Amino acid sequence: MEAPICIRPATLADTGIISRIIERSIRIGCALDHRNNPRQVDAWVRQQPAGHLCTWLADARFYLNLALLQDKPVGVGMALASGDITLCYVQPECFRRGVGRALMDDLQGWLRLRGVQRVSLNSTRTGEAFYRHLGYRQAAPPLTHEGLQTLPMVRSFPACA
């Protein structure tokens, strides 16, 4: 039986591991998107949040979570109080083990507690099937930035009574 996945809010002490999880997920797990093009990989990694993590962790409008499997950090996600999910990265060796779903369930729960009824995100081709499985649908034509194609997606939640 698989060990349970623990999700907790990220802290300042987690900034190094968060950066490593994101970079490994991009370099290894998203090859379908960047096709191992070194310039594209480097551009994608450079635009990630390492320099902004401390600011985001101190701002109540941002929520970063960390997934742990057997007490080892294996995934990270981030949502904005506006209803946008901006990060969901999982260590490649932990793909298809429920880590991404656990991160997304936690992010969506945080957003729903804030009254958000419509959640949006931009998916890579690598993540598209995963997000569709979670109930997201395409919201607009694909976007391209620095050679990376993303698909705007949304999911709505019923209003709480």
Automatic annotation (TrEMBL):
Organism for this UniProt entry: Pseudomonas monsensis
Domain of life: Bacteria
Pfam families associated with the record: Acetyltransf_10
Keywords: Acyltransferase, Transferase
Coiled-coil annotated residue ranges, if any: none
InterPro entries: Acyl_CoA_acyltransferase, Bact_Acetyltransf, GNAT_dom
Residues annotated as domain N-acetyltransferase: 5-158
Name of this chain's protein: GNAT family N-acetyltransferase
